[in-house]
Amino acid sequence: MKNLNQVVDALKLGNVIAYPTEGVFGVGCDPDNEQALLNLLDVKKRPKEKGLILIAASIEQLLPYIDLEQLTEEQVNTIKASWPGPVTWIVPVKTSTLPLVTGQFDSIAVRVTAHPQVKAICNAFGKPITSTSANLSGLEPCRSVAEVEAQLGDTGVVIFQGEVGNRTQPTEIRDAKTGNTLRQG
């Protein structure tokens, strides 16, 4: 279990971290480090095609990855009105974003978190991190440090001490272009 500075140092070195979110522990890494992304996918036993979510402290942190010019002003305002909070949006992606982040898609999943510890990580790191539930594929997501250690303890994941929020449901996922809800939250 590490403190904020140690977790940020781990991200800068390309390590995978585990951290508390609104409902479960997440695992993530630097979205601009291809080796870190490969390590994350290996830890999770997650197929490359599925893509990853970016979680940020502010919409400004997401701007290097998302192409808001492909959205209407109304669509952008709808997104902004839902943040910070537990809504993940599927939005157009900038071509400079690494394919391991987007998977097989020509879009990207992004969220601005309200969780204070995730915000602190993103602010200290200076950009978003990837976010996927802290669990091995097929197992229940972890809700405590002890559960993360039990499932991922031998993978080299750097664990940030903290408490998950009160959410019992996963974050809602919506498509920014269509407005459709893809997963209820």
UniProtKB/TrEMBL annotation:
<keyword id="KW-0819">tRNA processing</keyword>
<dbReference type="Pfam" id="PF01300">
    <property type="entry name" value="Sua5_yciO_yrdC"/>
</dbReference>
<dbReference type="InterPro" id="IPR017945">
    <property type="entry name" value="DHBP_synth_RibB-like_a/b_dom"/>
</dbReference>
<comment type="similarity">
    <text>Belongs to the SUA5 family. TsaC subfamily.</text>
</comment>
<keyword id="KW-0963">Cytoplasm</keyword>
<keyword id="KW-0067">ATP-binding</keyword>
<dbReference type="GO" id="GO:0061710">
    <property type="term" value="F:L-threonylcarbamoyladenylate synthase"/>
</dbReference>
<dbReference type="GO" id="GO:0005524">
    <property type="term" value="F:ATP binding"/>
</dbReference>
<protein>
    <recommendedName>
        <fullName>Threonylcarbamoyl-AMP synthase</fullName>
        <ecNumber>2.7.7.87</ecNumber>
    </recommendedName>
</protein>
<dbReference type="GO" id="GO:0006450">
    <property type="term" value="P:regulation of translational fidelity"/>
</dbReference>
<keyword id="KW-0547">Nucleotide-binding</keyword>
<dbReference type="GO" id="GO:0003725">
    <property type="term" value="F:double-stranded RNA binding"/>
</dbReference>
<keyword id="KW-0548">Nucleotidyltransferase</keyword>
<dbReference type="GO" id="GO:0005737">
    <property type="term" value="C:cytoplasm"/>
</dbReference>
<dbReference type="GO" id="GO:0000049">
    <property type="term" value="F:tRNA binding"/>
</dbReference>
<comment type="function">
    <text>Required for the formation of a threonylcarbamoyl group on adenosine at position 37 (t(6)A37) in tRNAs that read codons beginning with adenine. Catalyzes the conversion of L-threonine, HCO(3)(-)/CO(2) and ATP to give threonylcarbamoyl-AMP (TC-AMP) as the acyladenylate intermediate, with the release of diphosphate.</text>
</comment>
<keyword id="KW-0808">Transferase</keyword>
<dbReference type="InterPro" id="IPR023535">
    <property type="entry name" value="TC-AMP_synthase"/>
</dbReference>
<dbReference type="InterPro" id="IPR006070">
    <property type="entry name" value="Sua5-like_dom"/>
</dbReference>
<dbReference type="GO" id="GO:0002949">
    <property type="term" value="P:tRNA threonylcarbamoyladenosine modification"/>
</dbReference>
<dbReference type="InterPro" id="IPR050156">
    <property type="entry name" value="TC-AMP_synthase_SUA5"/>
</dbReference>
<feature type="domain" description="YrdC-like">
    <location>
        <begin position="1"/>
        <end position="185"/>
    </location>
</feature>
